[in-house]
Amino acid sequence: MKKIYHLNSFANQLCSRFFGFPAIFQKSNRHNHYHIKMASTTIKNEDLLALKSYITAADSTQYASLAATTLVLDLTHSNLQQRHAEIRFDKHDTVDELRRRIHQKTGTPPCFQHLQLKSCSGEVGIIYHEIVPGAEGERMLGYYNLPLGANVHCVDIDPYSKSSGCAFEDTSLVEKYVMTDEEYDRRKGTLRDWGRERKEQDKEFSLRKHAKLHAELVEARRFYKESGVVKDGFEIDDSTGVLVRCSKDDTSPGDEQKINSTSEKSAAEIENGPESIQHLSLHARCQVQPGSRRGEIAYLGEIPELGGGGHWVGVILDEPMGKTDGIVKSSGIRYFEAPGANRGGFFRGRNVQAGDFPEIDIMDELDDSEDEL
Question: What would you report as the CA-atom Rg of the chain, rounded to the nearest whole angstrom?
Answer without folding.
Answer: 32
